[in-house]
């Protein structure tokens, strides 16, 4: 059966990205574009207004192969890094919350289990997470701040043959919907068998039905309103000995997964930017002032050209990073280049688009203010601008300013 036609962005006619992609990569992109256009865009403005996450779409995303798609085995698609990036771009062109969902489920929770879990843990959780029957979350950030995970206060104490978990986490995506939480905690183990010093930080798989686990959605958000972020408390949460992720020791464990999520943001933020540019372009040729479309004015064309330039530069950077990732050559500093650039430029594009839309730009008749609000959140999570600047500063100078 012939796949439904998807509407391609007008800017594709100027910049031929397709020539740089394989047939498989284009197929993944078009699949995500159809999902975004048919299932997310018709309802996203109302969902944003209502602070509603459509959980019923999770299994559809699983059926389409988006969940953990960059992982191999256990029901995962084993897709290329570029294919995954293109899916992130198309989902975030609809709304950052849906790219965030795919990132939390696949790049954070599933990647943690896939990278560091035992074979039994992988078999228990990954197939159901790949289909969307099970939802996971990744609990690292704590209430006092997320930029210094080495200072975490959540503690797992050895107790007989198992563990007891106490502490709190904040801004944890999907936690109130999740079946399993990947929780990072500092271990207290008199035997020293589970690490000392910095290596005392370990990951645990916590079924969210475990007594003492409480996830509370954070209200009052002015961004990411169509997705779920939570506070979590752990009060005497008892875990079996096999709850620990055997392959992760120290901060390299969570950082290995954070870099997977940051890579998705490099692509995703350019999706939000493209959506804002498309809105500005449409408005520039349909709104008439002083007897002609505003797009016939040099100042508007200059703004559109600059916005287009940054979208295409950002996508080309993302593509370059994706090819490096596929060769196993992508470094954390290179990911920081992409995350810092994509979000910073996407926000600037959103602001320029809002100006072109004039007063109507602040209404939900256009997606620009929603994208701008969401991008403010994206700018903060998975490393603030300042954190990525320091990562790059360290790479350039060899000196650690943290």
Keywords:
two-stranded antiparallel sheet; flavin adenine dinucleotide binding; fatty-acyl-CoA binding; glutaryl-CoA dehydrogenase activity; elongated; Butyryl-CoA Dehydrogenase, subunit A, domain 3; alpha+beta; Butyryl-Coa Dehydrogenase, subunit A, domain 1; 402 residues; 3 domains; FAD
Write a brief structural summary.
It is an enzyme of class 1 (oxidoreductase). By secondary structure, this protein is α+β, with helices and mostly antiparallel strands.
Q: What structural class results from the helix and strand content?
A: alpha+beta
Helix content estimate: 40-55%
Instruction: Count helical runs.
Output: 11
CATH H level, superfamily name of the largest domain:
Butyryl-CoA Dehydrogenase, subunit A, domain 3
* Low-confidence segments: none
The main sheet comes to: 7 strands, mixed
Write down the secondary-structure element order.
HHHEEHHHEEEEEEEHEEHHHH
- The N- to C-terminal Cα distance equals 56 Å
Residue share in β-strands: 15-25%
Mean pLDDT: 94
CATH class assignment of the largest domain? Mainly Alpha
What is the global morphology?
A: elongated
Q: Quickly give the CATH architecture of the largest domain.
A: Up-down Bundle
CATH-assigned fold name of the largest domain: Butyryl-CoA Dehydrogenase, subunit A, domain 3
Counting structural domains, the number is 3
